[in-house]
Amino acid sequence: MTASAAPAAPDVIRSAYAQLVVTDLSKARWFWADMLGFHVQHEESDALYLRGSDELTHHSLVLREGPEAALDHIAYRVRTPEDVDKAEEFFTRLGRPVRRVPAGQGAKGIGDAVRVVDPLGFPVEFFHETERVDRLIQRYDLRHGAEVARLDHFNICTPDIPAAYAHYKSLGFGCSETIEGDEHELYAAWMYRKQTVHDVAFTGGAGPRLHHLGIATHESHQVLRCADLFGAIRKEHHIERGPGRHGVSNAFYLYLRDPDGHRVEIYTSDYYTGDPDHETYRWNVHDDRRRDFWGNAVVESWYKEATPVLDLRGNAQAVADSLLDESAVRVGADGLG
Fold first, then answer.
1. d(CA 113, CA 99)
2. For the chain, which terminus, N or C, has the lower number of CB atoms within 10 Å?
3. What are the contacts of 312-317 at 24+ separation with CB within 8 A?
């Protein structure tokens, strides 16, 4: 490789897990484990490690207690141990903060990893090795709450959508859908490595902030059951939006807020994107069906509120305003306006 050649990007497999800072671990356990149905794989005095019923890796969500609610990091699994080294070189060459996290010094069950702050300002981990766990796919007797199956995607708020698109394109991500203006201005994009609609979506708004975690269920009745469960115990205030049907992604959805305000989407019914000639579906920003296929209104909090993110030292990242003036339009099924 010549001195000017770009380093090879790591071969990302999929979105793998997120680590959230919560201020009350018992309340967080009630929401994520008891109500949504995550299985508790491991617990410590200040942390819970959770997974869905379909997941064979150690966890897809870490809840760690701390003084301020925030996103600690999102994580992608890469194909080989050598791809962890590639991630380190890739982001070092970009001049980004990079920290090696040896096995045993990061999240439990995760091997050697690299943690970076990417060009968008997000804390992102890349790892390959992870502890395998018992198969729960047919342990119907253990299912409870909304019976969540797996982590599906991250949705992030960023002020510069073209830059976000370009960065993830450089990591080898495909693009399933976009929201664009009449002159093809890019308002939002949904990008993937696994063969579904997205592993990450980014939409215009003040950032870096985490908009939500997308959690998949198998069937729409489990999304409805989730809403019924919160209503039955008079905790319906945790429901922020839905149930509904997105135009973008076709997903049947429900958005909730946990006791700290972290947003989660319970999600089903998207589609396959694995063909090599899969084309990007482009929505016009003036099409009202893009954010809700049935035309339902979107609450203001969903547009404006999101979770702050931390740097590699655990400090809150500064937030920049959006580069686009979006006051005249509402943007996207996962968009901010």
1. 9
2. N
3. 312/97, 312/99, 312/115, 312/116, 312/117, 312/123, 314/72, 316/68, 316/70, 317/117, 317/121, 317/208
In 3-state terms, the chain is what percent helix, strand and coil (to 5)? Answer: 20, 35, 45
Q: Which amino acid is at 94?
A: L
Q: Which amino acid makes up residue 168?
A: Y
Tokens of 225: 């059951």
Average pLDDT over residues 297-304: 86
The CA-based diameter of the chain, rounded to the nearest angstrom, is 63
Q: Is 89 exposed, middle or buried (0-12, 13-18, 19+ CB in 10 A)?
A: middle
| Single-letter code of the amino acid located at 274 | G
Q: Show the 3-state SS of 99-113.
A: EEECCCCCCCCECCE
3-state secondary structure 178-238: EEECCCCCEEEEEEECCCCCCCEEEEECCECEEEEEEEECCCHHHHHHHHHHHHHCCCHHH
pLDDT band at 5 (very low <50, low <70, confident <90, very high): low
For 23-78, the DSSP string reads S-HHHHHIIIIIIT--EEEEEETTEEEEE-TT--BS-SEEEEE-SS-EEEEEEEEE
Q: Give the residue carrying structure tokens 């005249």.
A: 328
Q: Using an 8 Å Cβ cutoff, are 76 and 123 in contact?
A: no
What is the per-residue pLDDT for 161?
Answer: 93
Distance CA 134, CA 42 (A): 13
Give the pTM. Answer: 0.94
At residue 326 the predicted structure's pLDDT band, cuts being 50, 70 and 90, is very low
